[in-house]
Amino acid sequence: MRQIFLAIALIAAPVAAFTGFELYASNTPAKTADLGDLSPFKTIVADVQSLASKGDLPGAAKRITDYETAWDQAETAIRPLNPTDWNNIDAASDAALKALRRSAPSADEVNKTLTDLMAVLKNPTQLAR
After folding, report:
1. Best exposed site among 29, 46, 60, 105 by fewest CB in 10 Å?
2. Taking all residues of the chain, what is their mean pLDDT, rounded to a whole number?
3. What keywords appear on the UniProt entry (predicted)?
4. Mean pLDDT, to the nearest integer, of 76-85?
5. Cα 79 from Cα 69, distance rounded (Å)
6. What SS3 state is found at 114?
7. Would you give the DSSP letter of residue 35?
8. Alpha-helix residue ranges (DSSP H) falling in the chain
9. Contact 67, 48 (CB under 8 A)
């Protein structure tokens, strides 16, 4: 009788461990794809932030056009890698563009939207504030 219980235990233990792992693994969300090297975009945004912090909003507005052009040109390569993260960055980009292109841009709003954009570029999984 002891041998039967031992045999059942030796069979049940690995089956239970394997089943438990499979259940755990199937509930773990899949890792999303990386968007690749975003440093060129971060460099441009840093330039825009520098201009805006000095009060040169026209210069910042001009420089953010370089960002917009580069972002739009990279869309077909970057967007398919992770559409959700791309959309997060794109929404933050649109907010910064809108803030800088107002007829009378607010320095506070511009700086906030640029800070948000840089934060989302650094961590695309987060939404802009």
Report:
1. 29
2. 84
3. Plasmid, Signal
4. 93
5. 15
6. helix
7. -
8. 2-27, 39-53, 57-78, 83-100, 107-122
9. yes
Cβ contacts of residue 117 below 8 Å, gap of 6+?
Answer: 45, 89, 92, 93, 95, 96, 128
Closest by CA to 46, choosing from 34, 30, 63, 32, is 63
Q: Considering only the C-alpha atoms of the chain, give the largest distance between any 2 of them, rounded to a whole number of Å.
A: 88
CA distance 66 to 88: 19
Domain boundaries, the chain: 1-30, 39-122
With cut-offs at 50, 70 and 90, classify the pLDDT of residue 20: low
Number of CB atoms found within 10 A of residue 41's CB? 20
pTM for the full predicted model: 0.73
**In residues, how long is the chain?**
129
